[in-house]
Amino acid sequence: MEHLTLNPPEVWVAKYSLCPAISQKDPMRMSVQVIKNEVVKLLYDADYFKELGATDRELITIVIRQDKAHFFDFLKEHAMTNWRTVGIWEKLVESNLQIEVEFRDNQQECLGNRLMHLLYAYNKKEVKEQILYARTTPLEEGTLFF
Fold it and tell me: Which of 1, 20, 44, 60 is the most exposed place for a label (fewest CB within 10 A)?
């Protein structure tokens, strides 16, 4: 498994560059607050979803050590689910928090790829985890609708 400890993969930029309405700014050159603002917009702004044709239901999952979970408190102002979990990393058992947010993405997956790039930069600048684990997965069916 390849870990993203040095540079983010260019595939993220290549995918979200297909959507000119999404910011093309390099997150490594953005302030932490601007990164957080854009993450919130990509996850929760229904008007932005419409502008981008984002109709596919997706779930973003972020797993972070419990002692660093406060770095994601900015998501608590909006809808999110979190779970206390246990993880094993390099033979150490640690308490983690798993954060889940449902959002909309478009067929080109521009929003999800931009989110990965933003979270990568946010981790490097603020959280400073060796590896921040985040992923998006498609949601096919569910009882929640937005």
Answer: 1
Contacts of 76 (CB under 8 A, 6+ apart): none
Q: What is the pTM of this model?
A: 0.88
- 47-99: pLDDT as tens digits: 999 999 999 999 999 999 999 999 999 998 777 787 777 777 777 788 999 99
Residue 80 lies in a domain: yes
Separation in Å, CA 102 to CA 2, 28, 114, 118:
26, 25, 15, 17
The answer to whether residue 69 is domain-embedded is: yes
As for how many domains the chain has, the answer is 1
DSSP-assigned letter for residue 70: G
